[in-house]
Design a protein that fits this description.
- This protein is of the alpha/beta class and about 575 residues long.
- The protein has 3 domains: about 20-185, Rossmann fold (3-Layer(aba) Sandwich), CATH 3.40.50; about 205-370, Rossmann fold, CATH 3.40.50; about 380-560, Rossmann fold (3-Layer(aba) Sandwich), CATH 3.40.50.970.
- Helices cover about 35% and strands about 15% of the residues.
- It is built from 22 helices and 21 strands.
- The strands form 5 sheets. A 6-stranded parallel beta sheet has the order 3-2-4-5-7-6.
- The chain is globular, with a radius of gyration of 24 Å.
- Its cofactor is thiamine diphosphate; Mg(2+).
Length: about 575
């Protein structure tokens, strides 16, 4: 068996080492610094998997579904800032990656997705397990490669990692026909990049930044909307400095949570559909909106023609020029890496005359906090998230699935560190929570990782409990069980006049027994006393633990802004 070593040749010159395309692929991944690959074998990637045997340098995690593999790679990438890698075979294996690729694409997550394909000699003949995965994924990848010559592999791998993790980051797909993975080549390491027309990080226009600083000095009611771009560009420190120097209140989008410390006195909360009252009112009453790495998503703006009606100027900073003016037309437009833009802005930043504005917003914040009706007889999901925050002191990596529990997590867990909140924002992918936590834990072995799930979403990739058990991945898996598709129920209740249709999850399995069947400790709580006790037990237990919190199906997420209404038209809920 040919051995792949991290000490592989790094020169441009081919070595005298005649190896297969599969061995070359693994060698290139090691050269790119890949720590772990998530995947699932099948016929057309067997040469690649054969090359993994007996190789101590190459770590591969066998998930129980290809969707689990791509979500795990995604969680690894989001939590570490590195490129996540997954592998699947052709046809159904590759097709099972589509949801995860789209998830990463919508949230600008750097992935390299490797798929096998049928023999190049039979491509296009509808051969067994053939699918045009490049055609299928064209709208949801940043770039794609079909490898036609084995000698191209080192260049393609090197380019793929560069493209995935520069500029506006995203997934890159590499499709390798089975015969190409077995062809022989004299190995060389590709170390140069020459991509025509690809400007990874355009230099910021300092004139636009100067204009922005001038606008801030003239603004009495400025507001920053900080998005996922702040986290992606590792610009949290620069944003904090910018806010302190300009004295500008901040809201952070769902993907921006953690990009600015939630305990800072100028943080006003998350805006949008389920945003905080203060954050939404700040945007609606601001005279200057500054979007930093946020794309004016419809869940943030809500009714577009009623968004920020008092804003005299709107500034938009983004690395992707396609985002400028796509939803909201900016008066000040700056294309560039967020970190680079803020580094320059901080050299010239001066405070805005916003003291009275800040005082008003802080009054809103104290008068209209996020709240819920607590109970001594039933367990409230908001209490569970507050308890998790208090016991972890806000220092855990939290992954979520999608639904009510996701919004409660965003509202009641306070994030102070970037890359600590891992969630599917743009696509809203159920099934994301558990496998993404596996990836996050592998990428951050010394940090506590908590996966918060609903009883609906957890069942979409629940088979990945096997990975936690076999690999002893110490994720603490929380299931908020209300026996219903909660977010769908909330919409049917409020918008569809209580016409509930196909949302009952009462026939779900006993999650504690199911966890135990996989070899994982399972715990359950249905009141506050039990919740505090078993959660502490979970934290003190080495290895993975599943904790089911049984809550009322009647609980809804508030505030809520209905589609087609303005940000300041919030349903606040009944808290009397």
């Amino acid at each position: 068996m040919e051995k792949i070593s991290k000490s592989a040749n790094h020169t441009h010159q081919p070595s005298q080492d005649l190896i297969s395309g599969s061995v070359a692929l693994l060698r290139c991944l090691l050269i790119e610094g890949v720590e772990c690959v998530f995947g699932y074998p099948g016929g057309n990637v067997l040469y690649i998997y054969d090359a993994m045997t007996g190789n101590p340098d190459f770590r591969h995690i066998l998930t129980r579904h290809e969707q689990g593999a791509v979500h795990a790679a995604d969680g690894y990438a989001r939590s570490t800032g590195k490129v996540g890698v997954c592998i699947a075979t052709s046809g159904p294996g590759a097709a099972n990656l589509v949801t995860g690729i789209a998830t990463a694409y919508m949230d600008s997550v750097p992935l390299v997705v490797i798929t096998g394909n049928v023999l190049s000699t039979v491509m296009g003949t509808d051969a067994f397990q053939e699918a045009d995965i490049i055609g299928i994924t064209m709208p949801i990848t940043k770039h794609s490669y079909l490898v036609r010559e084995v000698s191209d592999l080192p260049r393609i791998i090197h380019e793929a990692f560069y493209i995935a993790n520069t500029g506006r980051k995203g997934p890159v797909l590499i499709d390798i026909p089975k015969d190409i993975s077995n062809h022989k080549m004299f190995f060389y390491a590709s170390t140069s990049i020459n991509l025509r027309g690809y400007d990874a990080a355009p230099s910021p226009d300092q004139t636009e930044i100067d204009t922005l600083i001038q606008a801030i000095t003239e603004s009495e009611r400025p507001v920053i909307i900080a998005g996922g771009g702040v986290v992606s560009s590792n610009a949290s420190g620069e944003l904090l400095e910018f806010v302190n120097k300009t004295n500008t209140p901040v809201t952070t989008t769902l993907l921006g949570l953690g990009g600015f410390p939630s305990d800072h006195n100028l943080w006003m909360g998350m805006p949008g559909h389920h945003g905080a009252y203060t954050a939404n009112m700040a945007i609606q009453n601001a005279d200057l909106i500054i979007s930093i790495g946020s794309r004016f998503d419809d869940r943030v703006t809500m009714k577009l023609d009623s968004f920020a009606p008092h804003a005299k100027r709107i500034a938009h900073i983004d690395i992707d020029p396609a985002e400028l003016g796509k939803n909201v037309k900016p008066d000040i437009a700056c294309v560039g890496d967020i970190k680079a833009v803020l580094e320059y802005a901080n050299t010239i930043a001066i405070p805005s005359p916003s003291s009275s504005w800040i005082h008003k917003l802080q009054h809103f914040k104290s008068t209209y906090p996020l709240r819920y009706k607590d109970s001594d007889t039933e367990l409230k999901p908001q209490f569970v998230l507050e308890m998790i925050h208090e016991t972890t002191q806000g220092d855990a990596i939290i992954t979520t699935d999608v639904g009510q529990h996701q919004m409660w997590t965003a509202q009641f867990y306070k994030f102070n560190r970037p890359r600590s909140f891992i969630t599917s924002g743009g696509l809203g992918t159920m099934g994301f929570g558990l496998p993404s936590a596996i990836g996050a834990q592998i990428g951050n072995p010394n940090r506590l990782v908590v996966s918060v799930n609903g009883d609906g979403g957890i069942q979409m990739c629940i088979q990945e409990l096997a990975v936690c058990a076999i690999q002893n991945i110490p994720v603490k898996i929380v299931v908020i069980n209300n026996q219903v598709l909660g977010m769908v129920k909330q919409w049917q209740e409020i918008i569809y006049e209580n016409r509930y249709s196909h949302i009952d999850l009462g026939g779900s399995p006993d999650f504690v027994k199911l966890a135990e069947a996989y070899g994982i400790k399972g715990l359950r709580a249905s009141n506050k006393t039990q919740a505090s006790r078993i959660w502490q037990e979970a934290l003190e237990t080495p290895g993975p633990v599943l904790v089911e919190f049984v809550v009322s199906k009647e609980e809804n997420v508030y505030p809520m802004v209905l589609s087609g209404t303005a940000l300041d038209q919030m349903i606040m809920g009944d808290f009397k």
